[in-house]
Each structure stands twice: as structure tokens, then as C-alpha cells.
Write a structure and sequence with these properties.
Oligomer: heterodimer
Distance between the termini of chain A: 52 Å
Number of domains of chain B: 1
CATH class of the largest domain in chain A: Alpha Beta
Largest sheet of chain B: none
Helix content of chain A: 40-55%
Largest interface: A-B, 46 and 49 residues
Number of strands of chain B: 0
CATH topology of chain B: ABC transporter involved in vitamin B12 uptake, BtuC
Number of helices of chain A: 13
CATH architecture of chain B: Orthogonal Bundle
Number of helices of chain B: 14
Shape of chain B: globular
CATH class of chain B: Mainly Alpha
Order of helices and strands of chain A: HEHEEHEHHEEHEHEHEHEEHHHEEEEH
CATH architecture of the largest domain in chain A: 3-Layer(aba) Sandwich
Radius of gyration of chain A: 22 Å
Order of helices and strands of chain B: HHHHHHHHHHHHHH
Number of domains of chain A: 2
Structural class of chain A: alpha/beta
Chain lengths: 400, 339
């Protein structure tokens, strides 16, 4: 068995060394979950990358005038922990000789490769992993997704500006939920608003009746939820309607719970929910039209885009552009320098990479769930332009 | 899972006795492969390190599940606590890996003794439920105490000094590999000695018939508690290896899934043989890793299929393949002995 493995390893190594020598291939290692509970992330990353490359070509012309192929090597984190991520990243760097790493659906996975990025001087394009502090972990990190406070702060501001004075919060009991609760209440209180109640719900909660009774007693103007997409948020909206909160005029606020890929799971109770997010599927940016058309063409009518697709599309765009500008063999930090201040014509709308934090600065859209042509969709009702991650404003980088 | 009375550890008489030479080869082979791998597998030592960590973890489970017959799904508690103990020690006290490792062993061993003392008076399904409760409680504790563990984001800021001030942990993973290999070897010798001691034999007896063992004067509860604590310490040692080689600890090390994976590995390889953990963990990890490279969506199917086949046809796990081979050879010999 071992012998077989070594044989296979040797043949892989041989074929690789042959491949690298003969063609100008720029390899990017993409690590994400392709199986298990988070499998949609990997699938959407891969689909969007393939869609981008099919629309824009796999090769870019470098500064030397030669065509360089950008090739993605996909690895499954397989529902295992950051130790697996690290092992995969080391192999991608040492064996596959990738020049960049990308992907990372979960924050611990992204954080675990900081050491490798620093030692191998390897740019890392983070396509999801939303914990605010991540990009401080290594100067080689650049993030094209979002942070939790980036959504929550504009939402709290919008609520205050639209006559909501008292809010009740139900947030999921894990790190992102804690961040969301912290930033919502902080922002809302600073404006003069009142948090009349705050509950933490277990991460897989599906019975919200008791919470709703508490909300009713507290008589808020709005209920703010931060729940995992899928069954918990569906159950919350159901309880919200069944327990009479909707008829009592209590507004429902949220962030990513009502993305279009999840909306078919809800019934019409969800109509009127206001959420703040960085990507609305119904927007008519040229990038968004291209992404949606390409996904539909390649993966069928049901392949709807979501934040994973958008981030992978933009990440691929940045990778292509940096190879076009610097060629395939530049030093890691040169790529990072190039990406600082890079403007993105993203499917989500305009966005730019913060030159200091290497994190994305983007519009946040306030949307309302409505029914159009018999289908539940998000409709933009306000835009908060160019929001920088509030956590980074609160925690300025230490000068050294 | 296993039929308690029919499978004893003594080799049935029908089998050809293993000659000393073959036994020696069998003992040397895994370690020779491990040492050889170090020299040929440049650039993928990391996978070897991971495999050895899982082997150690599976080995620790074998002591209680295989030998003592304690069926648990909470073993990740000790693995994860060991990892967090090593990680926190490096952040708050000293980045020296060896002291941190010993600290992790002590912490997880003590946790094993405390939780074991609380729940080992039960057996069977009740015990299984209590182990589930233990691991869930500890997982939730890790999730809630964000100031300490980083919660769902994982433990950040670990620094690990070079071993003996000389061997640095780096991307090539040589230090981590040798470190894991040495630790695994020490634990293996320890387990081997332990399981062939009167203490180990008494555990075997307890698994087969605990009432009878009590009747002949064995302090059953104390023996079980002792092996539970030892096994927890070993799992914690595996966790410390994980923390030091990854320089990051995630909440997943405490999850129920981790308990499940290590159980699958052990059953795949074969319980009660020590080397079963080696085969099971290595096969699981290599098959998963290589099939996932061909197609990321595919590996669960292959691993699942392997597990079904093993459980259905190989009662003693993949280690049984050796026994079947020996039986075939002896049958062949008998036939050729005929005039």
C-alpha cells in the first residue's frame, strides 16, 4: 500500500516537474470545503472561477508579451479542521508549486495558513472567511469578501434613520453572532437608540416561539436577527409571523439570511424583511449580468450566484490582473502592492482594496424582500457607499 | 461491534505460527516506512505528520475501545483539550514545545480521570450518552469562552520555539515530522508494554467478562479508570502534536465529528492490535487525500464503501487480511504436505 502511494507520489512529482518546465502556467491553489456541511462554498467558488475563465479566457498576456495560463488546483478541506487546511496548503506550495493561495470558506481555515504565507511569501486571496481581524494575520492576505461589522453597522444606522428607536436582538451563539450583536448594539446605542432585549440562540436552533414571546413583551420597533442561513433563519421568520410580531408591526432586520439562493425556502412571511448586505442578486451591473449569464449557461438554470460566487469571480479577476501586470514570477509582496488600491468592477457594484488593511471597501445595500412575478427577491431601497470594515476603524493598526 | 467471547487475542491453533523472522519484519516495517518516508517525500511530509497524529489518537482509542471494551464517542474531548492546552501554554506561559506538550498530557490526563470517575460506573448505551454529553459540554465551553479560546474563530497567536533551541518548525515540516514520529514511537512502546503486562491482561479479562473478573478480586472500576486516564493523556498528546505542527487550534478538534473519524479509522484498521490504528489511520487519510485530489466530491463515497466492506467481511478490520493470508498459506502447505 505504502509502496503504491510512494509510486503514485513519485509519478505525480515527475509529471509535475515536466509540466512546469514546458509551459508558462501560473498555478493558484484553492482550498475550500467541497464535501460536508459547507460544501456549497467550494462548489460556488469553483463554478464562479470556471465561469470567469470561460468568459474571459484562461490566459493573460504578461508584461513580457507572453501568454500565461492561470490554472486553479482545487483541494477539499473535507469538513476537517485548520490542521487539514495547513497540510493542503503546504503541499500546494511545496509540491504543486502554486504561486498563490485562494478560497477559504471558514475563518479558522484562513487563519491557519498565515505562517505558510509568510514563510513562502505567498499571496493569499481570501474569498469568504469573514472574521474582521483576519487580514491582520499576515501581510500576504488580501480579502475580497466582507466582514460582519461591515454589514451590521450600516444596518443599525439605516434603522435609526428610518424611525426605529427600540430594537430586540436574537443572534446566533457563535463568534460571528457575537460580533454582530456587539456591533449592532454599539452603533445603535451611539445614535441614541435603545436595545430593549438581546437573546443568543444555539447555532442550530429551529424553535423560536419562546424568543418571540419575549420580543412581544419587550415591544420593540424592530427585531434584529443574525442567524445561519437555511433552517434556523427560516424557522425564525416562521415564528415571527406565527406569533403575531408581523401583524403587531414589529419590523424584521437581518443581513445575509434572505439571499436569493435561500429565499425559496421561505414562505411569504418573509416579505418586508429589510437586510443590509454587499451583494443584491437583482442588481443590473454589467459584471452581475455577465456572472449570472455565464453561470446559467455553464451550470444550468438553477445555478444562482451568491456571495461565494461573487467573491470568487472578483478574486479570479484580481489574480488575472496581477499576473497580467507583473508576470508569473514576481515576488509575493509585489503582487500585494499591485492589489492595494485595486478597483473592482464587481458583480456586487463598485469596490476597492484598502491599501493599508488589504481588505475590501464596498457599497452596502439596504434591501427589502418583495415578490416580483411570483418570485421572492431582494430589492435595493438604499445604498451606503464605500463602507470600510468598522472593526478596523475601532482597532487601528499598531504602528511599529 | 465485536463478539466478546469468540475472539480472544490468542492465535487459534489452526494458524501457522508466525516465525520470529516474520514477526520482526512486521514490527520493523511500519517504522521503516515512516523513516523512509522522511527521505523520499520531500514537500509532502506534512501529510505524514498528520497521519502519525491520527495514528496516535487512534492508538489511544484502541486502549479503551479495543482492549478495555469501553465504547466511547467522546474521545475528541481529550484530543481537543490537549491541543488547546498546548496552544494556550505557548501563548501565555512559554513557547517551548516540549514543556507545553507535557503540560497538555497532564491536563488531558487529569480531565480523563475526573470525567472517567464521574461516568465510568455506567456501561453500554448510558456510558455512550455520557461521553457524548462530555464532549458536547467541552465543545460548548470552547465556543463560549471566546476570551480564552477564540471561540469559533480558533486560537490565534501561537508561537512555538524550535525544539532544543535548534530545530525550527517551518513550512518544510521536517521538525514536525520527526517530532511526531518520536512521540508516536514512545507512546507505542508504552502501550505495547502496558497491554502485555498483567494490567493489560486484566483489561482484556474485564472486556470479556467483568463480573467474573470482579469475582476473582480484580478492582474493575479502578482498572478502567486508570486506562481511561492513560488513554486521555495519550489523546491529549496527539492534540498537542496537532497544535504544535499547525500552530493554530480550531474548535473542530473538539467536535463530535473528530470522535467519529478516529473511531472509523480504528475500526477500519482493526481494534485490539495496536498496529490496527496504524493501518486504519494511514489508509483513511491517504485514501481521503488522494481521492479528494481526483475529485473533491468523491472521497466520502470511497471511504464509506471501504468501511462497509470492512465491517461486513473483516471482523478484525484490515489487520484481518494478514490473518486470512496466513490461513491460506497454511492450507496450501497442508495440501502440499500430502503425498
Amino acid at each position: 500500500m505504502k509502496k503504491w502511494f510512494l509510486g503514485a507520489a513519485a509519478s505525480v512529482a515527475l509529471s509535475l516537474s515536466g509540466g512546469v518546465a514546458s509551459a508558462e502556467v501560473f498555478k493558484v491553489g484553492l482550498i475550500a470545503d467541497f464535501t460536508g456541511a459547507f460544501a456549497t462554498w467550494g462548489m460556488q467558488f469553483q463554478q464562479a472561477i470556471e465561469a470567469y475563465q470561460s468568459a474571459n479566457g484562461k490566459t493573460v498576456k504578461g508584461p513580457d508579451g507572453k501568454e500565461h495560463e492561470i490554472q486553479f488546483v482545487y483541494r477539499d478541506n473535507a469538513s476537517q479542521g485548520p490542521d487539514k487546511t495547513k497540510q493542503l496548503a503546504e503541499e500546494l506550495v511545496l509540491r504543486e508549486k502554486v504561486k498563490m493561495l485562494a478560497g477559504f470558506d471558514l475563518s479558522p481555515h484562513a487563519m491557519a495558513v498565515a505562517d505558510i504565507a509568510n514563510q513562502a511569501k505567498m499571496p493569499v486571496v481570501i474569498m469568504n472567511a469573514a472574521t474582521a481581524s483576519i487580514t491582520r494575520g499576515s501581510p500576504y492576505y488580501v480579502r475580497v469578501s466582507m466582514t460582519i461589522p461591515q454589514h451590521v453597522v450600516p444596518l443599525a444606522q439605516w434603522a435609526w434613520g428610518n424611525g426605529i428607536k427600540k430594537v430586540f436582538m436574537i443572534t446566533s451563539d457563535y463568534a460571528p453572532g457575537h460580533d454582530a450583536a456587539l456591533y449592532f448594539s454599539k452603533t445603535f446605542k451611539a445614535l441614541g437608540g435603545e436595545i430593549v432585549g438581546a437573546e443568543k440562540s444555539p447555532i442550530q436552533e429551529t424553535n423560536y416561539s419562546v424568543y418571540m414571546e419575549k420580543v412581544l413583551q419587550a415591544k420593540p420597533d424592530a427585531l434584529y436577527m443574525f442567524q445561519p442561513a437555511g433552517s434556523p433563519s427560516v424557522a425564525l421568520v416562521k415564528a415571527y409571523s406565527e406569533r403575531g410580531l408581523k401583524t403587531a408591526g414589529i419590523k424584521l432586520l437581518g443581513t445575509g439570511e434572505t439571499q436569493e439562493i435561500f429565499l425559496p425556502q421561505f414562505n411569504d412571511d418573509v416579505i418586508g424583511t429589510v437586510t443590509a448586505f454587499h451583494y443584491t442578486e437583482t442588481n443590473t451591473n454589467p459584471g452581475n449580468t455577465a456572472l449570472k449569464a455565464q453561470l446559467k449557461k455553464m451550470f444550468g438554470e438553477k445555478a444562482g450566484p451568491d456571495i461565494a460566487s461573487v467573491a470568487a469571480w472578483d478574486g479570479t479577476d484580481l489574480i488575472h490582473r496581477s499576473v497580467a501586470a507583473l508576470g508569473p514570477n514576481a515576488e509575493g509582496l509585489k503582487y500585494l502592492d499591485f492589489l492595494k488600491n485595486a478597483k473592482l468592477d464587481s458583480p456586487r457594484g463598485p469596490a476597492v482594496i484598502d491599501p493599508v488593511e488589504r481588505d475590501i471597501v464596498q457599497n452596502i445595500y439596504i434591501r427589502r424582500v418583495e415578490k416580483r412575478d411570483g418570485k421572492l427577491v431582494n430589492i435595493d431601497i438604499a445604498t451606503v457607499p464605500m463602507v470600510k470594515d468598522p472593526w478596523k476603524i475601532d482597532n487601528p493598526p499598531k504602528s511599529n | 461491534m465485536t463478539k466478546p467471547s469468540s475472539t480472544t487475542t490468542l492465535a487459534p491453533a489452526a494458524l501457522a505460527p508466525i516465525s520470529k523472522l516474520w514477526a520482526t519484519v512486521g514490527h520493523v516495517l511500519p517504522w521503516a516506512i515512516a523513516i523512509g518516508f522522511f527521505f523520499v517525500a520531500e514537500g509532502s511530509l506534512s501529510i505524514g505528520t498528520q497521519i502519525m497524529i491520527w495514528i496516535l489518537f487512534a492508538l489511544s482509542l484502541d486502549l479503551i475501545l479495543g482492549y478495555a471494551g469501553i465504547v466511547t464517542l467522546g474521545h475528541a474531548a481529550f484530543f481537543g483539550v490537549g491541543a488547546y492546552a498546548a496552544g494556550l501554554f505557548s501563548i501565555h506561559f512559554s513557547p517551548d514545545p516540549l514543556i507545553g506538550h507535557i503540560f497538555a498530557i497532564v491536563v488531558s490526563g487529569l480531565l480523563g480521570l475526573v470525567t472517567g470517575a464521574l461516568i465510568l460506573h455506567t456501561t453500554g448505551v448510558t456510558f455512550l450518552m455520557l461521553t457524548l454529553a462530555t464532549v458536547s459540554l467541552i465543545f460548548e465551553f470552547g465556543n463560549q469562552t471566546r476570551w480564552l479560546t477564540g471561540g469559533d474563530d480558533g486560537l490565534q497567536g501561537m508561537r512555538v520555539d524550535p525544539i532544543f533551541g535548534m530545530f525550527e518548525f517551518n513550512i518544510f515540516g521536517q521538525t514536525a515530522y520527526v517530532y511526531a514520529l518520536v512521540v508516536l514511537f514512545i507512546w507505542f512502546l508504552f502501550s505495547w508494554r502496558l497491554m502485555h503486562s498483567p494490567f493489560g491482561r486484566s483489561l482484556d479479562g474485564i472486556r470479556q467478562n467483568s463480573r467474573r473478573m470482579r469475582a476473582i478480586g480484580t478492582p474493575v472500576w479502578w482498572r478502567l479508570l486508570a486506562i481511561y486516564g492513560i488513554s486521555a493523556a495519550m489523546a491529549g498528546s496527539a492534540g498537542a502534536l496537532l497544535a504544535h505542527s499547525t500552530r493554530f487550534v480550531g474548535l473542530s478538534s473538539l467536535s463530535l465529528l473528530t470522535s467519529g473519524i478516529v473511531t472509523v479509522m480504528l475500526i477500519l484498521g482493526g481494534t485490539r492490535k495496536l498496529y490496527g490504528a496504524f493501518i486504519g489511520a494511514a489508509i483513511y487519510y491517504l485514501v481521503q487525500d488522494s481521492t479528494a485530489k481526483i475529485n473533491p466530491h468523491f472521497w466520502e463515497f470511497i471511504v464509506g464503501g471501504m468501511l462497509i466492506i470492512t465491517v461486513l467481511f473483516l471482523e478484525g478490520g484490515l489487520m484481518d487480511l494478514g490473518r486470512i493470508g496466513r490461513r491460506l498459506i497454511s492450507r496450501f502447505r497442508q495440501r502440499s504436505d500430502l503425498p
